[in-house]
């Protein structure tokens, strides 16, 4: 299997990227119209969130027809055109395959509801227990994970919304259907796929209550998961050379991720995991307010980087996506140091071992939404939790504060292309309000050679030029430093040192303390940084607020 270590991937949340026809919804022709911008940035692949026919209860993650493009996004022709125009500019398209579940509007589920036994067995139907659902498992979007069907006096499993019914992967026919879908899209010329929550597809033989949790331990990295992924690979994308694949792995383990992504396992090219994005969950509760735990963030990255490095796994690197608040607002300072902290976060991530992902808008400093009323939110998880927290007795103000920090809509506001009324995104009314942060736009960044965008271009170039960044080993430096996140990448004699200050206060980095060559400028060549030049003081580097630097260590004897 090819490794993609010199590649950078850009995630497009289609609904919010670019609206070409004034209906307020981003669409495929909109993406095509912005390809020059993406080429300029220098990315290699564009991952599009699901564009298939869907009732859009979960913005396309509830697929009703995997073979058709949803009319709100355009047509199959539009997608084919996008694929070929992207190819001309050296970029491949990756589609998002949601195979853990389908929409309850999908023909298969509709047939199941009519009692057709063939299609009932496409899903997971079970009898209830003691007048209630079969198990106490919780849906990821709140409430019990079983939906009741009175006609059968049975329940179907939905790990996500009740309109997203889990598929029965035990059934060979289901798996055959899914291979056909992947092969259909491969023939259309796509370069790869992202597989949504794909480590949840293998359910246990028996469905029993979880006395100590929400049920996830029974189906996460489930019993047949590696077998299923190997078969999927063999029967579909594994037959087309250089297809790039990434699996979204929910609550997973390092050991499983090594297997999912090791080239010799023939499963996937790389994997996402989310452990590092739970460092601001108070006692594991997302719907709480807490500053992020910097030490935990470092420890988690260290654990995954070292482990994947040592065992040959491939990590997809990311700090933001459409399910997360914006990294700049979450881990940086979008008020006082927006530029510095955006560049710092980008550097820390992109120089790690793995394949970096840029989430749309991140490349010019988009922030959280800063919505102030529940009417502005669109996300099914956010509105579900608004009601749950209300029922728990929290007051409105507190709930809105929590949503401001945690809602998935923070990442879903439309791209701020410019500062006009519709921000260059739409000539109509956007489906969700724009972020309330003033002044941020792609246009502003494109005019400024010191912009966040210009910095991302350099970061991407650096990865392409530098084999140490592509494939050097990883080692953290100063594990317990309270403000700095630093690491070394090493390939044979070549060493690259990355130092990032995650805070607004100046601190020192002392090379001598870490067994590194003497702290003189001659020994440390700056490859990239977000301040003009390094500030040396008595053999130490003075690291200014949110400063970041990539240094090539070149000791002068
Ligand atoms: O997300 C999977 C998932 O579990 C989370 O990222 C989830 O949104 C988070 O834990 C909630 O706190 C994927 C998609 O990326 C997401 O948009 C879909 O809603 C979900 O699967 C269901 O398909």
Written account of the structure:
The protein is built from 17 helices and 23 strands. The model has no long low-confidence stretch (mean pLDDT 97). It is 29% helix and 18% strand. The chain has helices at 28-33, 35-41, 76-88, 107-113, 117-120, 172-187, 216-219, 225-235, 254-261, 294-311, 327-331, 338-350, 380-391, 396-406, 442-446, 452-465, 467-471, and strands at 9-12, 45-48, 52-53, 65-69, 92-97, 101-103, 125-127, 146-149, 154-157, 164-166, 192-195, 244-248, 270-272, 316-317, 355-359, 473-477, 484-491, 494-501, 507-509, 524-529, 536-537, 540-543, 548-553. A hairpin with a 2-residue loop joins strand 17 (484-491) and strand 18. The radius of gyration is 24 Å and the shape is globular. It has 557 residues and is α/β, with parallel strands linked by helices. Helix 9 (254-261) packs across helix 10 (294-311), helix 12 (338-350) packs parallel to helix 16 and helix 13 packs antiparallel against helix 14. An eight-stranded parallel beta sheet has the order 13-12-11-5-2-1-15-14. 1-O-alpha-D-glucopyranosyl-D-fructose binds next to loops.
End-to-end Cα distance, whole Å, is 41 Å
- The percent range for strand residues is 15-25%
Q: What does the main sheet amount to?
A: 8 strands, parallel
The tally of strands reads 23
Average pLDDT level? 97
**Largest sheet, spatial ordering of strands:** 13-12-11-5-2-1-15-14
Helicity level, as a percent range?
25-40%
Which spans of ≥5 residues are poorly predicted at pLDDT below 50?
A: none
**Distinct small molecules:** 1-O-alpha-D-glucopyranosyl-D-fructose
Q: What is the oligomer described by this structure?
A: single chain
Structural class: alpha/beta
Dominant shape: globular
């Amino acid at each position: 299997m090819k490794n993609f270590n010199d590649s950078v991937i850009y995630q497009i949340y289609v609904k919010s990227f670019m609206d070409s026809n004034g209906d307020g919804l981003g669409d495929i022709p909109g993406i095509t119209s912005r390809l020059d911008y993406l080429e300029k940035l220098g990315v290699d692949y564009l991952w599009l969130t699901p564009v298939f026919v869907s009732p859009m209860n979960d913005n396309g993650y509830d697929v009703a027809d995997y073979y058709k493009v949803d009319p709100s996004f355009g047509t199959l022709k539009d997608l084919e055109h996008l694929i070929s125009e992207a190819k001309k500019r050296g970029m491949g398209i990756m589609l998002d395959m949601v195979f853990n579940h389908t929409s309850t509007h999908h023909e298969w589920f509709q047939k199941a509801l009519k009692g057709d036994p063939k299609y009932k067995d496409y899903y997971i139907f079970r009898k209830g227990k003691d007048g209630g659902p079969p198990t106490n498992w919780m849906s990821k979007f709140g409430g019990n994970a079983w939906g009741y069907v009175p006609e059968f006096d049975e329940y179907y499993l939905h790990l996500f919304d009740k309109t997203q019914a889990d598929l029965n992967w035990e059934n060979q026919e289901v798996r055959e259907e899914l291979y056909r879908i992947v092969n259909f899209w491969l023939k259309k010329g796509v370069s790869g796929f992202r597989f949504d929550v794909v480590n949840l597809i293998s359910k246990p033989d028996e469905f029993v209550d979880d006395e100590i949790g929400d049920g996830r331990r029974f189906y996460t990295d489930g019993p047949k998961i590696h077998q299923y992924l190997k078969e999927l690979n063999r029967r579909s994308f594994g037959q087309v050379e250089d297809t790039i694949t990434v699996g979204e792995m929910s609550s997973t383990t390092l050991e499983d991720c090594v297997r999912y992504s090791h080239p010799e396992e023939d499963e996937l090219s790389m994997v996402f995991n989310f452990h590092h994005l739970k460092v601001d969950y108070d006692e594991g509760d997302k719907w709480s307010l807490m500053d992020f735990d910097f030490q935990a963030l470092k420890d988690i990255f260290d654990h995954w980087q070292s482990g994947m490095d040592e065992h040959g796994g491939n990590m997809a690197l990311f700090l933001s996506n459409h399910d997360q608040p914006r990294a700049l607002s979450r881990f940086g300072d979008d008020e006082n140091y927006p530029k510095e902290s955006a560049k710092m976060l980008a550097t820390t991530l992109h120089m790690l071992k793995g394949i970096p992902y840029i989430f749309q808008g991140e490349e010019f400093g988009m922030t959280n939404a800063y919505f102030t009323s529940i009417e502005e939110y669109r996300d099914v998880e956010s509105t579900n939790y608004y009601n749950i927290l209300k029922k728990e007795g929290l007051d409105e103000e507190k709930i809105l504060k929590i949503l401001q920090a945690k809602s998935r809509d923070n990442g879903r506001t439309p791209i701020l292309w410019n500062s006009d009324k519709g921000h260059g995104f739409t000539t109509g009314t956007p489906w969700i309000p724009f972020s309330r942060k003033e002044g941020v736009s792609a246009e502003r960044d494109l005019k400024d050679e010191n912009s966040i965008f210009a910095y991302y271009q350099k970061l991407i170039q650096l990865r392409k030029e530098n084999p140490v960044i592509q494939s050097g080993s990883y080692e953290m430096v100063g594990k317990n430093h309270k403000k700095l996140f630093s690491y070394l990448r090493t390939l044979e004699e070549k060493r690259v040192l990355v130092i990032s200050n995650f805070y607004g206060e100046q601190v020192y980095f002392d090379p001598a303390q870490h067994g590194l060559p003497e702290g003189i400028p001659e020994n440390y060549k700056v490859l990239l940084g977000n301040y003009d030049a390094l500030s040396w003081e008595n053999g130490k580097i003075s690291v200014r607020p949110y400063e970041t630097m990539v240094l090539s260590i070149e000791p002068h004897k």
